[in-house]
Amino acid sequence: MKIAIDPGHGMSNRQSGIYDPGATHVENGFRHEEATIALKYGLILKDVFRAKGHEVFMTRDDAEDHAPVGMRAKNAKNAGCDVFISIHLNDFDDDAANGQEVLYRDSDDKLFAQNLQNALLAITGFKDRSIKKREDLAVLKFQGPSALIELGFIANDSNRETLLNPQKRNAICGAIAEVTVAQFGS
Ligand SMILES: [Zn+2]
């Protein structure tokens, strides 16, 4: 199996040649950026899948990678990927907003989304914002199974601290890989 991992945002995401940090939140003078956290998750997830003997295609590997969001699903297909996983953090004006959700496009992917949702909630204990069908997202235009995970809210202290915790991060990446392999097999 070959898995496409899409760490949300980054270079050329919204505008060509301009870095898009995604959602941001400043805490004690430190600026947390969605794109950086998503990349960290993506790179760990890559290692987890490879350790399980699967191939991985990264839509971006770092903060310089010029992969426009509109091309990411297509690039993944061209790379021969079987499944597409996009990693994001959520944002809302109200810092109290919290919880996790998984977005999917095709009805066929509903079970995959729900299984991801359940597995991650078991680790984080976050509020269940439920899975949501979204047909409008560019990255979900991948021809094949796909899901976009909104891990939690960057501005919510409890969500962010959990997601920045290395043990939780490893457990979350392990669970994403486990669900994906169980669902789509070898
Ligand atoms: Zn995002």
TrEMBL record:
This is N-acetylmuramoyl-L-alanine amidase. Pfam families: Amidase_3. GO terms for biological process: peptidoglycan catabolic process. InterPro entries: MurNAc-LAA_cat, N-acetylmuramoyl_amidase_3. SMART domains: Ami_3 (SM00646). Keywords: Hydrolase. One of its GO terms (cellular component) is outer membrane-bounded periplasmic space. It catalyses: Hydrolyzes the link between N-acetylmuramoyl residues and L-amino acid residues in certain cell-wall glycopeptides. Residues 73-181 form the MurNAc-LAA domain. It comes from Candidatus Accumulibacter cognatus. Residues 1-20 are annotated as: Disordered. GO terms for molecular function: N-acetylmuramoyl-L-alanine amidase activity. Its EC number is 3.5.1.28.
